[in-house]
Amino acid sequence: KLIFERMPATLELAVCAILLAIVLGIPLGLWAGLRPNGIAGKSIMTVSILGFSLPTFWVGLMLIMVFAVQLGWLPSNGRGETVRVLGVPLSFLTVDGIRHLILPAVTLSLLNIAMVIRLTRAGTQEAMLQDYVKFARAKGLSNTRIVGVHVLKNIMIPIVTVIALQFGSIIAFAIVTESIFAWPGMGKLIIDSIQLLDRPVIVAYLMVIVTLFILINLLVDIIYSMLDPRVRIADNKG
Fold it and tell me: Average pLDDT for consecutive 10-residue bins of the chain (238 residues)?
């Protein structure tokens, strides 16, 4: 019961972090892959290296210092005002909740943005050399259609895999971010439980995380069948 009370906060934070990684990482990775030698492409890759290198706790503290303490634009802790939808408290439906959500979501998404950028860039550079891209150009298709339809669809499988596994990792290991921003999620609960030696809560938390990973892997397999006809179960005659 304690875990399920805290789960909506963690899931909300994880979903926002993954959405940021998708919305920012894929376009920036495509840009860097299509123009690898340009100033923009090199700048994007430099930022992705920083995203890998900077520790999460330090990024969170710096964001609090700049945007909460010095500028005073955003709150530094808590979840803010929430609205109940079907009995589940959600903060992204209120202005105050969104303001509380921005800093922890950005902190949690930086590593994933960097990872998606590098995956998308590598996949784009490899795909642009394939025969189907040359054939599409020979047919006179525009670059926008080639990239948006042919290239993007073929590079999405490894990206979907990484994003799905990272989503599970965010849920399981959002402990540092939730502790820094006093976010009332499962990570904060497990830290408090460890300090109090509350073994039942710790074991229940691990069981919930394992179940979530299994469900996420199942969802990845289903998405595979939608993206790649070669792995569809219906086409397997063996």
Answer: 84 89 89 83 84 84 90 84 82 86 89 88 81 77 74 79 81 82 84 85 87 83 70 53
Q: Which helix (H) or strand (E) holds 89?
A: strand 88-90
Q: Which residue has the tokens 């019961």?
A: 1
- Burial grade of 194 (CB within 10 A; 0-12, 13-18, 19 or more): middle
Q: What is the pTM of this model?
A: 0.81
Q: Is 152 exposed, middle or buried (0-12, 13-18, 19+ CB in 10 A)?
A: middle
Enter the tokens of residue 83.
Answer: 């609205």
CA distance 113 to 22: 7
Residue 195's Cβ-count burial label (10 Å; 0-12, 13-18, 19+) is exposed
